[in-house]
Amino acid sequence: RCSPCQKGAPSSTFEGAGSSGEYPRTPAKNAMAAIFRLGIVLPGLEVGIFQALQEINNHSDGVLDGLLSGARLEFSFAPSQCSEAAALRNTLRLTRDAFGGSGVHALIGAGCSAASQTAARVAEAAGVPLVSPTARYPGFSYPRDFPYFARTIPSDAFQFEAMADLMQHLFRYSTVAIVASRWWWQFGGAIFFVDI
Fold first, then answer.
1. For residue 22, what pLDDT band results from cuts at 50, 70 and 90?
2. Above pLDDT 70, what percent of the chain?
3. DSSP string, 98-127
4. CA-CA distance, 73 to 26, in Å (whole number)?
């Protein structure tokens, strides 16, 4: 079992996989391994990420033992809860205070576009790359605006282009109304949709 993820574990911030935290460790195969510190800002994925990092760090179980050989991944969780305020607070904590004040080499998160936008600004100021598997806001596609941000999921721009295509060519609409909130994802999508 993932002991740092069990009910009753300390707050939402913890470090593990060989860090100075109080959680299970897999001994490094060789003492000369390069250590790469990750900050995890994704909410709700602690167990899966913990298990994946344990597997990657295990270079003797016969499963992808050559993956990142000579490297060891350490992590610190500080989930954004899809909140801009939590993303700001926790991304600052990870970039400045994690690992005894050494900070992280890279961030994964922050779960949703609004929180990712805030985390991306903090990451840029700290010079730390941020990779998101979930933030789909079309504005993240512009490296000039978000130079330290990358994502592994396609932009919602593709959905907006498909909706515009359907409305124009299948339904033959020439005018539509758009209703959106001030959230990054909805407002940014509405702006992108209008520009199509």
1. very low
2. 79
3. HHHHT--SEEE--SSHHHHHHHHHHHHHHT
4. 11
Instruction: Determine the Cα–Cα distance for residues 73 and 80; give it in Å rounded to an integer.
Output: 21
Residue 106 has pLDDT above 50, yes or no: yes
- Report the 10 Å Cβ neighbour count for 26: 18
Q: Is the model's pLDDT at 116 over the cut of 70? A: yes
8-state DSSP, 28: -
Please tell me the predicted confidence (pLDDT) of residue 190.
75
Contact between residue 34 and residue 70 where contact means Cβ atoms under 8 Å apart: yes
Quick one: tokens of 11? 């707050």
**DSSP sequence for 148-181:** TEEESS--THHHHHHHHHIIIIIS--S-------
